[in-house]
Amino acid sequence: MNIIVTGGAGFIGSNFIYLELEEHPEDRIICLDNLTYAGNLSTLEEAMKNPNFRFVKADIADIEAVHKLFEEEHPNIVVNFAAESHVDRSIADPSIFLQTNVIGTGVMMDACRKYGIKRYHQVSTDEVYGDLSLDRTDLFFTEDTPIHASSPYSSSKAGADLLVLAYYRTFKLPVSITRCSNNYGPYHFPEKLIPLMISRALADESLPVYGKGENVRDWLYVEDHCKAIDLVMRKGRLGEVYNIGGHNERTNLEVVKTILRELGKPENLITFVTDRHGHDRRYAIDPTKIYNELGWLPETKYDDGIKMTIQWYLDNKKWWEDILSGEYTRYFERMYSRR
Length: 339
Ligand code: NAD
Ligand code: DAU
Description:
By secondary structure, this protein is of the alpha/beta class.
């Protein structure tokens, strides 16, 4: 099969490409990515050596480039990871989030309609459900939880999800959607909580924790997410949404303290800063549906996964130091100087 993976130079997409090349050597993978600040081609260096892999630099919202690629590659499956993914950036400037996450999704699906496709799979997020309160730990997001997005990022992802389901109903486009909780692991861009805290702790810099650090995220090792997407795009029912999560809820403060402990760094590096606007309090996924229908269960326990991740950042300093020395540094100053 020919599989187009959009956003494959980013965090989860690149992990997914390596999984596919390993687990399905019979398939050809075409990565479509326009290399925004979050796309890092060096991440795909090993994949480039595989004759079954091709990288194409283009915007998913560029109709001409997308149609040209479909004519060249005749894809059987499209998996859409490409997105603007950082909540804080969406609060600073929402417009690119609408362009890529909504318009880009529409352009990809229109190409699928025109050229025909076995499956269009949309990689979505638990953030489309909004948040849960901190004191109702009995509540979880199910696929029937109403869409109730909080940030420009999550509302653009919710808009895309609605469009995907509309294309299923109106045009019978063979679609599926997965909504996953917070991922962590190798190649995570160092603007997100875990890699940011690891890189700053290693430099003995302050660790900016929003508010009181009480917000809760449900952490899943990235490889487990990729395995779930692989299952759904090959075997999941068409027109369906599947939630993905591993019941690993932690407060942000717990996550940061674990990182400091593992690195042997003092807790006085923690600095409480002004909270994120509209900060979602708690995410928690109920993954019963994907377990019942497809037998998916997470394989990596959080306690092991966080140690493996910290070790990866220690072993791959060049990967993230190259990022920190570029555009990201200026971004960091813009984002944190007024806090
Ligand atoms: P990321 O920011 O690390 O990577 C995004 C990739 O998309 C980059 O390679 C970037 O260059 C590319 N891209 C951005 N705009 C593009 C465009 N217009 N055309 C082509 N390529 C473009 O993101 P991530 O964390 O790997 O997330 C991937 C997907 O998974 C996103 O759709 C995100 O909403 C979703 N998701 C992420 C998480 C998480 O915890 N990171 C959890 C659930 C769902
Ligand atoms: O739930 C899935 C989502 O998880 C994905 O859809 C998003 O693409 C992904 O970025 C992630 O969103 P979050 O906003 O949860 O991730 P982030 O790493 O930005 O923040 C995690 C938590 O840590 C959040 O409560 C905000 C807090 N935080 C974050 C940063 C960057 C801090 O306290 N300090 C920080 O400097």
